[in-house]
Amino acid sequence: MSNTEGLQVFVEKLKAQNESWVNEVIDALGEITVIVPAESLFEVCSFLKSEHDFDLLADLCGCDRGPEEDPRFEVNYHLFSTVHYKRLRLKVLLTEDHPNVKSVTELWKTANWHERETYDLLGIIFDEHPDLRRILLPSDFDGHALRKDYPLRGYEPYSLT
41-52 and 3-17 are packed helices; what angle lies between their axes, rounded to 10 degrees? Predict the structure, then answer.
């Protein structure tokens, strides 16, 4: 059984629990990515953690696909089960007009800094986050530096002094 065949079991369990939780499944390069509606992400994560032992949020990262793309943003959640030794990626797609998704800090404390970094650099808003503020850039920094439409030299010269 290949690694992705073992993960298909979890995808089928997601579909069985709620068919609307799975928009698309991408099986590529030995990994599975499940595209999940943003409004269902918290429920999906809660189900995978409590019912299927995905007890570790290994990483969370955002991506700006470019201002010409719709939806413009994506957030990837890399989940790992220390019980089953399986890795699963969830992806949510967010529009430029509403770059919001519910925070998963309630499920995994490690999401706190990952979500803050994604907010800081891309401007993605994690609803119900306990402390959503900048973590890498100064609090008075203008804009979000990893957005594809952010000017290479910034909006104006910035100095810490």
Answer: 120
Q: pLDDT tens-digit profile of 82-100?
A: 999 999 999 999 999 999 9
Cβ neighbors of 1 (< 8 A, separation 6 or more) are none
Q: Does domain 3-127 have CATH number 3.90.180.10?
A: no
Angle at 37 between CA 18 and CA 45, to 5 degrees: 65
Q: Give the residue from 76, 81, 88, 77 showing the smallest Cα distance to 7.
A: 88
pTM of the model: 0.91
Would you call 82 helix, strand, or coil by DSSP? coil
Tokens representing 107 are 């499920």
Domain boundary assignment for the chain: 3-127
Residue 112: C-alpha distances to residues 7, 32, 56, 132 (Å): 27, 25, 13, 8
User: What letter represents residue 114's amino acid?
Assistant: H
- Which token pair is 57? 């949020």
Which residues, including other chains, have CB under 8 Å from residue 102's CB and lie 6 or more apart? 38, 39, 41, 42, 126, 127, 128
